[in-house]
Design a protein that fits this description.
This protein has helices at 38-56, 72-81, 85-102, 118-130, 210-222, 236-251, 282-286, 292-300, 312-333, 344-359, 364-383, 389-406, 419-433, 437-449; strands at 3-6, 11-14, 22-27, 60-65, 134-136, 142-144, 170-171, 183-189, 199-201, 204-208, 226-232, 256-262, 265-267, 270-271, 308-310, 452-457, 460-465. It has 466 residues and is an alpha/beta fold. It has 3 domains: 3-262, HUPs (Rossmann fold); 270-406, Isoleucyl-tRNA Synthetase, Domain 1 (Orthogonal Bundle); 419-465. The strands form 5 sheets. Strands 5, 6, 7, 8, 9 and 10 form a 6-stranded mixed sheet that branches. It starts with a strand and ends with a strand.
Length: 466
C-alpha cells in the first residue's frame, strides 16, 4: 500500500482517497512573471511523478494546477516592461507550457488562470465577511482575521499563543517572510501602484490577494474537500496555511486530506540566487548542451522531502544514466535468440521491489536502484547469450511500465539513421578492414559531428544518437 508523508500530521499515512479510486490533486503552479527556474521544476516534476504513480496503481487522477496571473510580482514586472498585464503573463505562460512539454510533464486536467475566477473569489470573501472571519480595513481592503480561526498554524506550526482577537498585524503584501502570523489581505483596494489592473465588484474596486486565488480555484474544480494538495516547502507558510484558514473558515469542512511538500533545490550547495551566479532556468541548462531527460532524471532521482543539491557534475552523471537506459532498450530490442521466457521470476521480483520502494513515500533513489540492478542482471544474461526474444519482449514491457512513472521517454521511437551517416559507417568499416585506423578514427569523428556515435561490438558496429 502507498504511504505518503502528510505535512499536516507530520507522519507517514496509508493513502486512502475520499472517493474510491478517484483522486483530486491540486498543485500550485507558476506565477508568470519570468521563466520558471530549476527550483520550480523540482516541484513540478515531483507532482508529475506522484500523479504518474497514482495512475500506475490504477487511480483516476483529476489534476489541477493554477496559473497566478495577477499578484504583486506580475503587476510590478508588467509595468516595468510597459506591457499590459495579460499580454505580459501570456508570454510566460506560453513559455511555461513549452518547458512542461520539454520535460515530459503530463498536462493537468485544467490550468485555471486567477483572472478568470474573480467572481468565485468575491463570493468566497463575502462568505467570510458574513461569518465575521473577515473584515474591511480603513484602506478599503478586506482582511482575514486569523484570531477567528482557532486552528491557524496547524500546517506550518506557527505559534498563535498570546494573540489577542483583532490585534494581529495586517499584511497586504502577497508574500511575507515572518515567523509570526498576521491578518492577510483577501481583497486589495485599488491603489495607483496597480495602474489599470482592477475589478469593480461588490467588495469595491480592487484585486484579489494571492492566497484567496488558490482556495477559490481548488474548490471550484475539486470540491470543498479533496485528497491531495502539493507544492514546494516554501509555500507551506504563509500561502498554504492561509489557504486552509480561508477555505475551512468559509465551509466549516476539512479542506485537504493530505498535504505533500517537496524540499528546496540548492545549486552547488547554496541557495539559488542571481547574485551568486547560480540561478538557472531550464533554457539556461539546455543551452549548455544537456538533454531535457537528463534534467528530468536529476530532478526526480532524489527523495522529494530531502534537499536536492544540483551540480553540473551530477547532471553529467544523469546524462550518462539516461543514455545507459536508452542503450539498454536498444540492446534488448536486438535479441534474436528463440526460446521460452526465462526471466519471469526476475521480472516479478523486480516489479514487486520497485513498487515496494515507491510505496514508501515515493522513495525514488531506492526505486531507481532496483531498476539499475535489473538492467545489470539482464545485460549479464545477454552477454551469456541466455536471453531469448520472448524474454526481451517481457523485459521491454516492464521497463516501459516503469517509465510510465519515470517519464524518461524510453519507448520513444528511434530516429532513423541518415543515409549520409550509413555511408560513413560503411567507409569506416572498410578502413578498419584494411587496418587504416587513422582513417577509421577520422570518419568516427565526422559521424560524431553529425550527431551520431559509433560503438564497436563483436557482432559489428552499433550506431546511436549522440
Amino acid at each position: 500500500m502507498l504511504q505518503i508523508y502528510n505535512t499536516l500530521t507530520r507522519k507517514k499515512e496509508i493513502f486512502k482517497p475520499l472517493k474510491g479510486k478517484n483522486v483530486g490533486l491540486y498543485a500550485c503552479g507558476p506565477t508568470p512573471y519570468h521563466f520558471a527556474h530549476l527550483g520550480n521544476f523540482r516541484a513540478y516534476v515531483f507532482v508529475d511523478v506522484l500523479r504518474r504513480y497514482l495512475q500506475y496503481k490504477g487511480y483516476k487522477v483529476i489534476h489541477i494546477t493554477n496559473l497566478t496571473d495577477v499578484d504583486d510580482k506580475t503587476i510590478k514586472n508588467s509595468q516595468k516592461e510597459g506591457v499590459p498585464l495579460k499580454k505580459f503573463t501570456d508570454k510566460y505562460i506560453k513559455e511555461f507550457f513549452t518547458d512542461v512539454k520539454m520535460l515530459n510533464i503530463l498536462r493537468a486536467k485544467e490550468y485555471p488562470r486567477a483572472t478568470d475566477y474573480i467572481d468565485d473569489m468575491v463570493k468566497l470573501i463575502k462568505v467570510l465577511l458574513k461569518k465575521g472571519i473577515a473584515y474591511k480595513g480603513e484602506d478599503g481592503s478586506v482582511y482575514y482575521n486569523i484570531s477567528k480561526f482557532k486552528e491557524y498554524g496547524k500546517l506550518s506550526g506557527v505559534n498563535l499563543s498570546g494573540l489577542l482577537a483583532g490585534a494581529s498585524e495586517r499584511v497586504s503584501a502577497d508574500e511575507y517572510k515572518k515567523e509570526k502570523p498576521a491578518d492577510f489581505a483577501l481583497w486589495k483596494a485599488w491603489s495607483k501602484e496597480d495602474g489599470p489592473v482592477f475589478w469593480d465588484t461588490k467588495l469595491g474596486r480592487g484585486r484579489p490577494g494571492w492566497h484567496i486565488e488558490c482556495s477559490a480555484m481548488a474548490m471550484k474544480y475539486l470540491g470543498k474537500t479533496f485528497d491531495i494538495h502539493a507544492g514546494g516547502i516554501d509555500l507551506m507558510f504563509p500561502h498554504h496555511e492561509n489557504e486552509i484558514a480561508q477555505s475551512e473558515g468559509a465551509t466549516g469542512k476539512r479542506f485537504v486530506k493530505y498535504w505533500l511538500h517537496n524540499e528546496h533545490l540548492l545549486v552547488d550547495g547554496r541557495k539559488m540566487s542571481k547574485s551568486l551566479g547560480n540561478f538557472y532556468t531550464l533554457r539556461d541548462i539546455l543551452a549548455k548542451g544537456y538533454s531535457p531527460m537528463a534534467i528530468r532524471y536529476i530532478l526526480l532521482a532524489s527523495q522529494y522531502r530531502e534537499q536536492l543539491n544540483f551540480t553540473l557534475q551530477a547532471l553529467d552523471g544523469a546524462e550518462s544514466t539516461v543514455r545507459r537506459f536508452i542503450d539498454f532498450m536498444d540492446r534488448v530490442s536486438e535479441v534474436k535468440k528463440t526460446g521460452k521466457v526465462f526471466v519471469k521470476t526476475l521480472i516479478s521480483k523486480t516489479e514487486k521491489e520497485f513498487t515496494g520502494m515507491i510505496n514508501d513515500d515515493l522513495n525514488m533513489p531506492e526505486a531507481l536502484a532496483v531498476i539499475h540492478s535489473f538492467v545489470h542482471d539482464v545485460n549479464k544474461l545477454i552477454d551469456e547469450n541466455k536471453l531469448t526474444k520472448s524474454d526481451a519482449a517481457a523485459v521491454k514491457k516492464l521497463m516501459l511500465k516503469f517509465d510510465s512513472v519515470l517519464g524518461l521517454n524510453l519507448g520513444k521511437k528511434k530516429e532513423a539513421v541518415p543515409a549520409t551517416v550509413k555511408e560513413l559507417i560503411k567507409e569506416r568499416e572498410e578502413a578498419r578492414t584494411r587496418k587504416d585506423f587513422a582513417a577509421a578514427d577520422s570518419i568516427r569523428n565526422r559521424i560524431r559531428q553529425l550527431g551520431w556515435i559509433v560503438e564497436d561490438a563483436p557482432k559489428g558496429a552499433r550506431i546511436k544518437k549522440a
